[in-house]
Amino acid sequence: MSRLGDLIRTERLRAKLTPKQVARKCGVSESYIMAVEAGTRIIADDQARRILKTIGLRDQVEADFTLDDIAATVDLLQVQPAAKPQPPKAPKPALVRPDAEENEQKDEGVTGSVWLDALSSVLKRVPVMNAVMKPVDHRLVPIQNGRIEGANPDKVFYYMAPDDSMRGFRIHSGDVALMVPAQSPVDNAVMLVEFNAHRYLRKIKKLDSFSVLLQSYDREYDAQTVQLSECSFLGRAVKLEITL
After folding, report:
1. Which residue in 141, 129, 148, 242 sits closest to 192, CA to CA?
2. Rounded CA gap, 154 and 175, in Å?
3. pTM of this prediction?
4. What is the SS3 string spanning the chain?
5. How confident is the model over 201-239, as pLDDT tens digits?
């Protein structure tokens, strides 16, 4: 199932609509909707938006499926599959339902929407987590060679700085840092650390095999020596998006 088809099916079920009801509202056949949900049919971006809006999903349509987002991260010439030869169409019978002929016309020229089905393999919807590790937003991040910043795409996440305790290191409240998995301290790296039942963004300084220095810098520099046995490391920051 494609990412788009999965989204359409999820929202259709949430709206308690059958494929036939959605098809009737969109002016297409039931088999067309089922093929889109199964990921066996590539559809035009305007048709995808129309289906999603018909189901009732409006706010996320532009946020999740804008051509600007895709163009900024994906080279469509590299991900577009080669066109398969199509068998000649059989002559239409003398009597054709008007709505069936209209649907045939709507299906033409859809090869320009390869980006919709390509999303699941070249982009990852990465969650933005708050201080209690609850998702509050997301970012679309490109996948390169099956990895994001060298890590498993399912293991990366963004962490939103909850305060200005790291502004001396150019991280302010509301900025989001892309975190990759790291369970051991990395010297001079900014890491997400769990200590005393709280999570902190801190710059790490390794002191020896048993302790580290957790550095912060709000109005003045501060550092705390912590035993490795007293803390755990949840990730290492590799990129930062600032809030203007």
Report:
1. 129
2. 22
3. 0.54
4. CCHHHHHHHHHHHHCCCCHHHHHHHHCCCHHHHHHHHHCCCCCCHHHHHHHHHHHCCCHHHHHHCCHHHHHHHCCHHHHCCCCCCCCCCCCCCCCCCHHHHHHHHHCCCCHHHHHHHHHHHHEEEEEEECCCCCEEEEEEEECECCEECCECHHHCEEEECCCCCCHHHCCCCCCEEEEECCCCCCCCCEEEEEECCEEEEEEEEECCCCEEEEEEECCCEEEEEEEHHHEEEEEEEEEEECCC
5. 999 999 999 999 999 999 899 999 999 999 999 999 999
